[in-house]
Amino acid sequence: MLEILAYAALALALLPAVMTAINLAVFRAPPPRGPGPRPRVSLLIPARNEEANIGAALGAALASEGVELEVLVLDDGSTDRTAAIVAALQDDARLQLLAAPPLPPGWCGKQHACHVLAGHAGHPLLVFVDADVRLSPDALARIAGLLERNGPDLVSGFPQEVTGTLPEALIVPLIHVLLLGYLPIWLARQTRHPAFGAGCGQLMAVRRDVYQRAGGHAAIRSSRHDGLMLPRAFRRAGCATDLFDATDLARCRMYQGGREVWQGFAKNATEGMATPFALPFWTLLLGGGHVLPFLVLLPALAAGAWPAVALSALAGACVYGTRIALALRFRQSWLGVLLHPLGIALLLALQWSALLAALRGRPAVWRDRVYSS
User: Fold this and answer.
1) 10-residue block means of pLDDT along the chain (373 residues)?
2) For residues 161 and 275, what is the distance between their CA atoms, to the nearest angstrom?
3) 156 and 184 share a domain?
4) Which single residue of 6, 9, 48, 305 has CA 20 to 30 Å from 219?
């Protein structure tokens, strides 16, 4: 039995190891933009109770180089100093503060905020960023160049994910584990099928005419998972979407502490892997490929079952070799690498908790708003 489990663990560990190796070769940052007229970019930032972030985000954004820039911030009913901080920076004519209208029934707060921002944008390229994203000075020019050069209709970048606490280090870097270990990026670029749509809601860019034609955020008005659902909506409209590595272009600390990590990932879990059909499959893939090798190794050692020891050790080497490669490439926490199997176990526990809560009719809560599952 141990040997059978060891073979299964090795097969499930090899899948993301091979996929990651292939994806790392094609998942690249946009190169520097070549000479030519400066692209006209509207940077759109939805902000709800972001007083701890918005000042630094705007400081980085207004330092952008190589673009004709406008920055629109939508204060989405903040009860802190978000609006006052933005207002104090409006001596820069490129910055405009907007107030969100009341949230209509059936809309998620962020999707409505992005929809309103897009309606006020004056430039042909729209870049949506979260208020906790810090752009590098050349980020917008390079992203604009990617849209101009390669021709995708919507592109999404994955920033360097900064982590400060153990729960963050365990869970947040798994974004890259899932993306690069289980999405064939080279194949996604050959098709417009919605199943291959993926992105990061922290940083998305699109041409305004295409955004309007595809229905924009109104097409996913009730969704809490714009990173996944917006690219899929664009693909359903016949548009091409693509991904890029934004590690050198932006950084983001998406959540702070265990409570935010749990609530933040749980709020949109049922639009990703936490469905009755998908979650058992993901549990097999992730649990079998990242946790099972180590569950087999110890009893195999104790029993002196050396074939099982060898197989499970090889599987474990695949797991940690892949994880180390990702940590080096994307500057991830080494504590998260060391405790990687625990992080996978916690992620699966989070997903199962979200699924059970949804089946029981419990709403998701985020930014003091309640959303029905």
Assistant:
1) 93 98 97 90 97 97 98 96 96 96 94 98 97 98 90 94 97 98 96 96 96 97 94 96 98 95 92 94 98 95 91 98 98 97 98 94 71 59
2) 26
3) yes
4) 48
Same domain, 84 and 227: yes
Cα 216 to the chain's mean position, in Å? 18
Report the alpha-carbon distance of residue 67 to residue 46 in Å, rounded: 21
Same domain, 214 and 75: yes
Question: Which range marks the domain in which residue 277 is found?
Answer: 2-23+272-371
pTM for the model = 0.95
Tell me how long the chain is.
Answer: 373
CATH of the domain at 183: 3.90.550.10
Would you say residue 260 lies in a domain? Answer: no
Q: Strands, DSSP E only, in the chain?
A: 40-47, 68-75, 95-99, 125-129, 133-135, 154-161, 203-207, 241-252, 364-366, 369-371
